[in-house]
Specification:
It is built from 8 helices and 7 strands, in the order βαβαβαβαβαβαααβ. The chain has a 7-stranded parallel β-sheet, with helices on both faces. Helix 2 links the parallel strand 2 and strand 3. Helix 1 packs across helix 8, helix 3 runs parallel beside helix 4 and helix 4 packs parallel to helix 5. The radius of gyration is 17 Å and the shape is globular. Bound molecules: nicotinamide-adenine-dinucleotide. The site of nicotinamide-adenine-dinucleotide (NAD) has 30 residues, from helix 1, helix 4 and helix 6. The site of nicotinamide-adenine-dinucleotide has 30 residues, from helix 1, helix 4 and helix 6.
């Protein structure tokens, strides 16, 4: 059997970029997948690419809204009879220097990532604990949760918050056999909507490189000299939630071609 056969995965922000690659990888490994995102139509379109509604469904869920999160978890339980694996991936990056960062910027970054992942983990953990069959929660945090980059105080601070949620929940949920791990990507340009949504132009301006050369720029400053693509992050989620790492919890895996190690 495939490694994730019979498991139900709930992936936030899965209508685009890294989340879409994760949903697709977990479906390929046999999981039933719930594609949760802001936009129902986009979420349903991605789910339809993965298979029929027996294996994948799309749900609308603003992760910053507790009622919407609960409704999405309820829809998951209704569609697939349970939940086994949760990926907190939804996010966005405003990337501004301190003096340009408004209170609204700060609140939006923290609402979607720190609060959003807290709400999703809480609603999912309740279901996981009730099922008593263990489970997995994975946070897509960032290299920026540990290392300071230029002009992104609100983003990096909320990524650091997510990274600490990983450690705290690994401790708290461990007795229920629930593993909580994180992935720290960096430099995912190709296939990621963050760049399409303005982050690309922002980073290009910050580093003084043309936007279409950002992928190469990021690759060249890594120790492997290899560009990181959404599928590389999906590979890490697959390994962290698979049977081989059954005794690993509270870990953060860098997927950055070595930037954080250098
Ligand atoms: P993306 O823009 O392609 O995808 C993000 C998805 O999240 C979108 O589909 C968007 O609609 C969704 N989303 C945004 N706000 C939401 C909300 N309130 N509720 C539900 N869904 C919401 O970006 P990506 O690059 O694939 O990023 C995915 C995650 O990876 C983010 O958490 C990001 O911070 C993290 N990350 C990305 C990189 C990178 O280099 N691209 C590096 C480190 C970490």
């Amino acid at each position: 059997p495939k490694s994730h056969q019979g498991r139900v995965a709930f992936v936030t922000g899965a209508a685009s970029g890294i989340g879409k690659a994760i949903a697709s990888r977990l479906a390929a490994e046999g999981a039933c997948v719930v594609v949760a995102d802001l936009d129902l139509e986009k979420a349903q379109a991605v789910a339809a690419e993965l298979g029929n509604t027996d294996v994948a469904i799309g749900v609308a869920a603003n992760v910053a809204d507790p009622a919407a999160v609960q409704a999405a978890i309820d829809a998951t339980l209704l569609a697939f009879g349970g939940i086994d694996l949760v990926v907190n991936n939804a996010g966005l990056s405003l990337s501004k220097p301190l003096l340009e960062t408004t209170e609204a910027d700060w609140d939006l970054q923290h609402d979607v990532m720190a609060k959003g992942s807290f709400l999703v983990s809480k609603a999912a953990a309740k279901a996981l604990i009730e099922q008593s069959m263990g489970g997995d929660i994975v946070y897509i945090s960032s290299k920026n949760s540990v290392f300071a980059g230029p002009s992104n105080i609100a983003y990096s601070a909320t990524k650091a918050d997510q990274a600490h949620q990983v450690r705290l929940l690994a401790v708290e949920l461990g007795e229920h056999g629930i593993r909580v791990n994180g992935v720290n990507p960096d430099g995912v340009v190709r296939g990621s909507g963050i760049f399409a949504s303005g982050w690309g132009a922002n980073r290009a301006a910050t580093y003084g490189v043309p936007e279409d050369k950002l992928g190469e720029f990021y690759a060249q400053r890594t120790i492997l000299r290899r560009e990181v693509v959404p599928e590389n992050v999906a590979d890490a989620v697959y390994v962290l939630t698979g049977p081989e790492l059954s005794r690993t919890t509270g870990l953060h895996v860098p997927v950055d071609s070595g930037v954080a190690a250098a």
